[in-house]
What does this fold into?
Amino acid sequence: MAMTYSEKVRDHFANPRNVGTIEDANGVGEVGNAVCGDIMKMYLKINDDGIIEDVKFNTFGCGAAIATSSMATEMIKGKSIEEAAQLTNKAVVEALDGLPPVKVHCSVLAEEAVQAALEDYRRRKAQTEDKAGAEEKK
Amino acid sequence: MRVYADQAATTKISSRSLQAMMDCCKEHPGNPSSLHEAGRDAEAVLEKARSEIAAMLHAKPAEIYFTSGGSEADNWAITQAAALGTKKGKKHLISTAFEHHAVLHTLEALQKQGFEVTLLPVHEDGLVRPDELEAAIREDTALVSVMYVNNEVGTVAPIAQIGEICRRKGVLFHTDAVQAAGHLPIDVEAGKIDMLSLAAHKFHGPRGVGALYVRKGIPIGNLIYGGGQERGKRAGTENVPGIVGMAEALRESLEDRAQKNARVLQMREKLADAILQIPKTRLNGDRKNRIAGNLNFCFEGIEGESLLLYLDLQGICASSGSACTSGSLDPSHVLLALGLPAEVAHGSLRLSLDETNTEEEVDYMIEKLPAVVERLRAMSPIWHDGRD
It folds into this structure.
């Protein structure tokens, strides 16, 4: 049985937004694995005010994987870290006017990629702060 | 430009087949089981088609049973061979790892009923080894089912050798010839084939009609109970227009077949040479021992479905494997059977051509495909990794 993608999904895989990498990203997250057929890598550039100034993605996967990655980047671009942390796969699916049931896992992956990139940002930030604190003590 | 390069999924009905169907609907509208003139007329048309199809397979008319297609024929052949085996205490079935799901899922169902199934390896080239088949046959083997031409990689099985072994060992031999009929000359006598499945829509006939050849003397049981159609084995008023359309399509397909195959092969080789220029690209299955129109590639770093969708945007209809499994998330079981790792098997593309394709279409695909692969690789995290 053939699967039908919504017009929005078709638009987002045909013309994916924010494809690429960010050289000086301060939050990078990668989820999925090649054996299952989906890998998403998300790059975030977050400014000092905690706003996501830029976001890019690279995805290996099906049409839905590309579309959900693209939509997720659009939904978090220009948002605060707190707002982005609220992103759910359900919101991504709704923004795309739905996904075939077998493809819903792609939206989960998109949510996880965003969360992984935010987590990486927090970790890096904590490390820098620890370092700065340690140097002050010296 | 629109290019249809998915002939292995289905073919467009030919004008001759369509005309034969329409003529049949208009001029022979009777029920072949009716005793009156209209019924006798429809029966004559039906039996003429049966005789013609039988002759083209080197079979007898009474050995042909019409079905709704290839999957039905496969299900029927295998379940009946298993039932016949049971009567003789034989509970072992042999097939291959890369059969169509119409065969594999039937075997799985039989496995749950207590049958033991051996799936032969098909190796990297996609070919069954006759000596391995012979070694796998046991005293209690009820059936060997090996597909004539694989639907994804197009490799052609050594049918005559398999038939010879099975006949010598006294084991029933079924072949799913859905991808072979109309493309290769089929001779059930020479091939020592006991049962053979075919489907009309793979050779420019209508969808929803097929046939099962069963060698005379094999007492197969019923598929559908009811009236006396198909010698009482498959009840239900026959799809007479479909059957007539199938007979016409098979006749047309086999006309000048050698010349058609030579032309298809020329187009395919040109396409293969050009696509294999793309870095990190492999052709799956033996290049020589495959049906003229089939190509199956893996492109490292990209996934098959997105490749298909991007090709579709360029007007190219292709497939990542079988259309029957396109809703599945698993990589092709055929490519896994050829020994490909799952991450590579995800990036597969099947292009299947036939005599209705043109040189211009091949040139168009050669022009468009590399850019599509490049675009997807540019957004692939694992392709970047591969380059590091």
User: Anything to note?
Assistant: The radius of gyration of chain A is 16 Å. The CA atoms of residues 72 and 92 of chain A lie 6 Å apart. Helices of chain A lie at 7-14, 63-76, 81-85, 89-95, 104-137.
